[in-house]
Amino acid sequence: MWATWVFLGICGAAEGEGVEPPAPTDRLYYTNANFGRVNPLGGVELFRVGWRHRLSDSDHILLQDTYTFVAAEVMATPAYTRVGVFAEAQFLAIARVYAQYSGVGYYGNFSQVQSWDSNAVRYSDQTLEASEGDAYATLGSVFTTGGTLRGAAGPLVIRSTVALTNQNLNLRDGDVVFYDQYWDRLAPDGGWMVLNDADLMVLAGKARLGARHTFTDELGNSDPVDSAMATHRVGPLLAWEFSAKEAGASFNHPTLFLISQWWLAHPYRAGEEQSQAMPLVAVGFAFNGDLAVWN
Fold first, then answer.
1. How far apart are CA 257 and CA 248, in angstroms?
2. Cα separation of 68 and 90, whole Å?
3. I need a labelling partner for 102 at 20 to 30 A (CA). Which of 60, 61, 71, 247 fits?
4. Into how many domains does the chain fold?
5. What pTM does this model have?
6. Looking at residue 222, what is its pLDDT?
7. How many CB atoms lie within 10 A of CB 46?
8. Rounded distance between C-alpha atoms, residue 261 and residue 184, angstroms
9. Which residues contact 83 (CB under 8 A, 6 or more apart)?
């Protein structure tokens, strides 16, 4: 999955890296991100708003920007909408943990949802488009939990983000897997998937320049077939933060980002059905701010 949370991480890459005035103790805080991508094609709008509480006034490097954040969340795409709750905690500046639970509704368009009674199926773009008439609307739920570890040495930032996701949809009788376009893989209904993003970035003024490796897999599949294989992709990322104000601003950290990653391992995108020279490309814009503050 955000998820999308991975793209939002670029916007906040530098938060807590330097000495800033303490944030307000309590804030009605929001985050917003939207992006579009190709290979696979998709678009997402993610909005969260809720209560953010500062945990420490210390200027110690490990205690700067420690907080808890509890929010309502809406994720909207042309194919489905998720509405739920999100909770995040950063007890040390080097680590965050989070969890989110959402109800999801698919509209039955854009070849989604398509489901099968076995993971020994094809879900290439061409196959999904040819069987678009089999897509159907449905409801379900999504639970995601994970965390981020990060460190910095001067302008160099290294970060690893892990997400574990469990989805439960009302699939057709007998079906056990479905194609999840956001993850671009077969999703086991009621089962777990894992995603890891590993970033190496250089902070250069308003710019963030670096590279990202992304890994996804299904957990607990003792007999994986090619269609359920782990996927890997790697490539450069670029972000430009237009401005950074002190905490309390209603519009803060507006950031434009670009990610381009080539598929190293994928059932169809790494040369098996389409050229490996064609990368995943995502372009987006993210920002955050405070609607009210209390000291």
1. 23
2. 6
3. 247
4. 1
5. 0.90
6. 59
7. 25
8. 14
9. 72, 73, 74, 75, 102, 103
